[in-house]
Every structure is written in structure tokens, then in C-alpha cells.
Amino acid sequence: MTLDASRRVVALVPAAGRGVRLGESTPKAFVPVGGSPMLARAVDGLIASGVVDRIVIMAPIEMIDAARQLLTAHAPAVGSLPVDVVAGGAERTDSVRAGMAAAPEATHFLVHDAARALTPPALIARVTAELTAGRHAVVPGIAVADTIKSVSAAGDVTGTPDRAGLRAIQTPQGFDAELLRAAYAVDLPVTDDAGLVEAFGATVRVIPGDPLAFKITDQLDLRLANALVAESAADEKAASAQVVPR
Ligand code: C5P
């Protein structure tokens, strides 16, 4: 939580996607990873970062009550700061817009996908520290392992950008609240919030991301996330078994 009384860091959690690529019957944010819904894990990470004053979740309209219930049941730290659930929209940008409207007091926004359920709290703190240091737009990014090509609608390669200059962008994406509100006044088809801020003409700073902040999109990602949670639970069990009682 922030020490500066005039600063209000509000985390907006888009969780209103249908998760078509994941192919589960429930909306993606409500799919469990290691027994806890992705949304609850994402919220726990934001609270554990210690840098957020309030969380606003944007859920599918028919899942608002379910979201409130699952947070009570699965996110132990909920209650230590205000967590609200509002209705998301048809597109991700509509969901973020709804979240911003619910937080007029925000001086800074962290926009963090529920689908990045395993994001380390330290990454959330690093993005926020850059905002505190005076940057207006900060996103985490990691080097890309594959060669990326642009391809025409017909399937022909139209370009091969130098891989060294590319980053795969993650969340949380951090913004000065006034900048994000102004950038969102324009309606453009973008897949992340920084895209709107870039189109608005502002500089977006990329800081090192974390592989654990990967987005759970398809079944392979879900298997990986479940395996990582199981491995870390087994490590914790082994560590506590090694503690010698006094
Ligand atoms: O579709 P994609 O994987 O890019 O979604 C990223 C995040 O945005 C997910 O957490 C999803 O729930 C959220 N989303 C949303 N509203 C939409 C579409 C996606 O909140 N209409």
C-alpha cells in the first residue's frame, strides 16, 4: 500500500474474456490453476506486492456474484484492501474503460490480466516503482525466443524484424491515470493498453518482465501453470519437513 497520501494506485483486472482459445466451459478467469481460480491467484499477487491501494475487477456480467464469492473463498488476503467487481465489456478495451470509470480517485493504474495468474508480486512492485520514480507509462517485456515474421493475408512473408529489438509484452502495465484516461478517449483496436498510449504519442518504457508472468491462453499454458503450482507446493512441503522442531 502507498505511503504517499495523495497517491492512489488502483489495479484494474480485466477478467471478462470468454477464453475461447482455452476451450473450457467457464470464462477463462474462473478456470482453476492448482485448485484456485486464475482470478483469485492474480488478485493474491497484486495484494502481496504491497503497492496497490484498491483493486477493481471487470468480470462477465453474469459472473459478478460468482467473482465476489470466489474471492472470499480463494483469495485469503482479500479484506486487507478494497476489492470491487464491476461488469466488463465485449472487448478488452471496453472492460478496461469500465474499470477506469469505477475508479475516479486513481492517480495511477496498473492494468493486469487475470490470465497472468502466476505473475510474481516483485514484478508488480517493480512496475509501480518506475511510476513512483516519475515515468508515465511502464510495461514489462521479455526477449522473444522465436524469429517473428509479418505475413500478408495470403500467407506470404512481408518482413522479418530484427529479433534483438523485439519484446513480448506482459502485464501489469502501469500508467499515470490521467494519461490512460486521455488515451482511452480514442477508440482503436489494440490488444494492450500501452498500444493506446503509444498512439496518443506518449513514451512507453519497457522494463524486464518475468517468464512466470506468461498469459494462460491455451491448454498447453494451463498444463504448464498447473505443473508450476504443483512443483512449488511440493518444494514448500519439502522445505517445511526439513525444519527441525525445537
Ligand atoms: O483475450 P486475451 O487473452 O487477450 O485477454 C486478456 C485478459 O483480458 C484476460 O484476463 C481476459 O479475461 C480479459 N478480457 C476482458 N474483457 C474482454 C476480453 C478479455 O476483461 N472483453
Annotate the secondary structure layout.
Elements lengths: L8 E6 L17 E2 L2 E2 H12 L4 E6 L4 H11 L8 E5 L4 H10 L6 E4 L9 H12 L4 E7 L6 E2 L5 E3 L7 E3 L3 E4 H7 L9 H7 L5 E4 L10 H23 L5
Parallel strand pairs: 1-4, 1-6, 4-5, 7-12
Antiparallel strand pairs: 2-3, 6-11, 7-10, 7-11, 8-9
Helix pairs in contact: 1-2, 1-4, 5-6
The site of cytidine-5'-monophosphate has 18 residues, from helix 3.
Outline type = globular
Determine and state the CATH class.
Alpha Beta
Number of strands: 12
Order of helices and strands: EEEHEHEHEHEEEEEHHEH
- Distinct ligands, ions and cofactors found in the model: cytidine-5'-monophosphate
- CATH H level: which superfamily? Spore Coat Polysaccharide Biosynthesis Protein SpsA, Chain A
How much helix is in the residues?
25-40%
CATH topology: Spore Coat Polysaccharide Biosynthesis Protein SpsA, Chain A
Sketch the major β-sheet. 8 strands, mixed
Spans of at least 5 consecutive residues whose pLDDT stays below 50 are: none
Mean of all residue-level pLDDT scores: 94
The number of distinct structural domains comes to 1
Structural notes for this entry:
- With 246 residues, the chain is of the alpha/beta class.
- The protein has one domain (9-138, 169-241): Spore Coat Polysaccharide Biosynthesis Protein SpsA, Chain A.
- The chain has seven helices and twelve strands.
- The protein has helices spanning 38-49, 64-74, 92-101, 121-132, 177-183, 193-199, 219-241, and strands at residues 9-14, 32-33, 36-37, 54-59, 83-87, 108-111, 137-143, 150-151, 157-159, 167-169, 173-176, 205-208.
- Strands 1, 4, 5, 6, 7, 10, 11 and 12 form an eight-stranded mixed beta sheet that branches.
- Helix 1 (38-49) crosses helix 2 (64-74), helix 1 (38-49) packs across helix 4 (121-132) and helix 5 crosses helix 6 (193-199).
- The longest helix is centred in the last third of the chain and has 23 residues, at 219-241.
- It is globular.
- It binds cytidine-5'-monophosphate.
- The site of cytidine-5'-monophosphate has 18 residues, from helix 3.
